[in-house]
Amino acid sequence: MTTNNKLTTNWGAPVGDNQNSMTAGSRGPTLIQDVHMLEKLAHFNRERVPERVVHAKGAGAHGYFEVTNDLTKYTKADFLSEVGKRTPMFIRLSTVAGELGSADTVRDPRGFAVKFYTEEGNYDLVGNNTPIFFIRDAIKFPDFIHTQKRDPKTHLKNPTAVWDFWSLSPESLHQVTYLMGDRGIPATLRHMNGYGSHTFKWTNKDGEGVWVKYHFITDQGVKNMDVNLAAKLAGENPDYHTEDLFNAIENGEYPSWTLKVQIMPLEDANTYRFDPFDVTKVWSHKDYPLIEVGKMVLNRNPENYFAEVEQATFSPGTLVSGIDVSPDKMLQGRLFAYHDAHRYRVGANHQALPINRPKNEVNNYQRDGQMRFDSNGGGTVYYEPNSFGGPTEVPEQKQAAYQVSGIAESVAYDHNDHYTQAGDLYRLMSQEERARLVDNIVGAMKPVERDDIKLRQIQHFFKADPEYGTKVAEGLGLAVPQEVK
Ligand code: HEM
User: Fold this and answer.
1) Strand 291-300 to strand 58-67: parallel, antiparallel, or no bridges (unpaired)?
2) Which ipTM did the prediction report?
3) Which residues line ligand 1 at a C-beta cut-off of 6 Å?
4) Which GO terms describe its molecular function (predicted)?
5) N or C: less crowded end of the chain, CB within 10 Å?
6) What is the pTM of this model?
7) Does the pLDDT value for residue 96 go beyond 60?
8) Which is nearest to 95 in space by CA: 240, 303, 200, 260?
């Protein structure tokens, strides 16, 4: 907040001249004693933090979440404890593969990262606009992302790498079908759903647990963008989605989403027809219908993009009492990846920045580190256990105990049907949607340099649905598979 109009140095002293550097005479050279100029130039050199390694381009907004349905029989999470309860939140919506300045209207999943500032600490739900993912084991993530990024030699996007990886990772088929379909390019960020994608665990006050999946259903309705318009906008207005969200909120057209959940009894996970923790699969809505939780409304734009959006740090491991993780092997890897990324990208004390810090009190024995800009615990006790009345643990907040067992080995999930749900998604589409899907795939696969890669991928489409595989093969002018290997 400025209270007067006086320009000052970083150290608060008034600046005498901000237009002319100090020189020896009007011609110069410039004098090194112009410390104000040196500070300006040096600070400018440090204006960028590294962009996110994925999800670099994004738009953010503030809002609130309001509970509309009592689900306390499933979770003791405080922010869900009462119908009508409102919790402030911040959202960041992003593309995945492109750089910070890349176009918004590309075919890509959209990140859907929500930070709830609950009275019992922050809760981050770091999902996408798709209910599934390309891979199901965190160990494959860096390889997968390499294929989505630029080729190290040409510095160009590399369709051969993309389809080579996907064709060798058939678990990607469901998400590839989703991405290549109409939903691969949303009309705006307001017209898409968000999903937690993974399975999480809710625990109630009696210590009873359930598995849960989150669905944010857009109240604006799902709308997608025609590929030709998307291509045109990518050139004419690469920030189209960012601008649309900002303007909608600025004009008082507050976008909202209805949060729904699917609830699965814990024991069903042992007998369900596939592994419910496998993030390449959706749970049938017939088996586990959607149950309403509440409404999320975005009603305030950030005041400062860097402070609030660029410095926002979300992690699927930022949880509150009543909400825990599941054994999902992607989610488990993500529990490491995010805050590790933040410590590198923003700094060791990223959690204390205004956009990230909880609205409730933070009390622990962590101290020091670069850029410790709060009081650093002052003179209070800095170790535990102690005899000086420092903060102590809250045993009733311990996660409910649960049984795990198994032989330690590097092994995939037991269930390896990558085709049924991808085929179901294809069969759900109208003839027109299928035609657009095939068109998009054929366009994307044409530049692939090797036919064996294309044929391997066609086999996967064929296994999902023979018509699907046949149409892609025909579109690419390649042999239709006669049988599936
Ligand atoms: C961002 C890693 C899977 C959604 C990121 C970032 C990393 C990362 C390092 C950048 C964080 C930052 O610098 O702030 C991983 C790894 C994954 C994985 C290792 C797999 C094991 C997923 C999945 C989803 C997802 C499955 C969605 C269901 C997001 C979102 C962001 C993000 C939304 C952007 C968050 C923001 O807006 O700041 N991921 N990711 N990621 N990831 Fe993942």
Assistant:
1) antiparallel
2) 0.98
3) 52-55, 58, 92, 94, 111-113, 126-128, 133, 138, 141, 197, 312-314, 330, 333-334, 337-338, 341-342, 345
4) catalase activity
5) N
6) 0.97
7) yes
8) 240
Amino acid type, 133: F
| Pocket mutation for ligand 1, best pick of 48, 52, 137 (most atoms within 8 Å of C-beta) | 52
pLDDT > 80? residue 364: yes
Work out which ligand 1 atom sits closest to the CA atom of 142: 19
Q: What confidence tier does 4 reach under pLDDT thresholds 50, 70, 90?
A: confident
| Residues 6 or more apart whose Cβ sits within 8 Å of residue 393 | none
8 A C-beta contact, residue 128 and residue 109 = yes
Catalytic residue (one of 36, 62, 122, 128):
128
Task: Look at ligand 1, atom 26, and give the residue with the nearest C-alpha.
Answer: 133
Look at residue 121 and give its three-state secondary structure: strand
Q: Residue 184 burial by CB count (10 A; 0-12/13-18/19+): exposed, middle or buried?
A: buried
* CA separation for the pair 360, 376 (Å, rounded): 16
The total number of residues shown for the chain amounts to: 485
Q: What is the DSSP string of 45-79?
A: HT-PPPPPSSS-SEEEEEEEEEE-S--TTT---GG
Cα–Cα distance between 335 and 314 in angstroms, integer? 11
* Residue of 55, 174, 215, 418 marked catalytic: 55
- For helices 451-464 and 431-445, angle between their N-to-C axes, nearest 10 degrees: 160
Number of neighbouring beta carbons within 10 Å of residue 218 = 20
Q: Count other Cβ atoms within 10 Å, centred on residue 385.
A: 7
Looking at residue 484, its pLDDT comes to: 62
What pLDDT does 324 receive? Answer: 96
Percent of the chain with pLDDT over 70: 99
User: Can you tell me whether residue 305 is helix, strand or coil?
Assistant: helix
Q: Which residue has the tokens 């389809």?
A: 163
Band of pLDDT at residue 481, cut at 50, 70 and 90: confident
The contacts of residue 429 (CB under 8 Å, 6+ apart) are: 181, 437
CB atoms within 10 A of CB 453: 21
CA distance 443 to 180: 10
* Rounded (5°) CA angle 351-90-117: 60
How far is residue 396 CA from its own chain's centroid?
31
CA of 232 to the centre of ligand 1 (A): 28
- Give how far Cα 467 sits from Cα of 53, 122, 317, 423, 460, Å: 37, 47, 42, 10, 12
Beta strands 110-118 and 194-195 are: unpaired
Taking only the tens place, the pLDDT of each residue in 156-208 is 999 999 999 999 999 999 999 999 999 999 999 999 999 999 999 999 999 99
In order, the DSSP letters of 80-117 are: GSSTT-EEEEEEEEEESSS-TT--SSSSS-EEEEEEEE
